[in-house]
Amino acid sequence: MAAAAATGTALLSDYARDRATLADARRRGAEAQPLPVRLLPADARHILHLAALAPSGHNAQPWTVRLPGPYHWVIGNAPRGWLPVVGPTQHETTLSLGAFAQNLGYAAAHFGYRCRWEVRPATPQAAEVGVRLSRRP
């Protein structure tokens, strides 16, 4: 029991230090390093896990997730999941990313969060979607 409490305390202090580092980097205008997944709050990790259960064409799972903050994520399109033989325009990949985003929205709502989406279109191969979670009133 004491070991679990010590681990929890250590994670909270790491989390607080990481938040302080991010805030300091933002004040300086520097590019902050993303959070390690292990430092995310438990509900955020669970939301991302549920989102990753989304179906994808040929089970390619073509998404990447960058973690600028505990509840601020950027979903991208990973070249490792592209299916050029199936479709050179990556239509199936785009649908898979949509399924990931939809699962994320459902999971976030289940945990009492709402999503604010920011689509950053470039090309289907380089599109990103930013999402920020906030507690529902």
Automatic annotation (TrEMBL):
InterPro entries: Nitroreductase-like. It comes from the Bacteria. This is Nitroreductase.
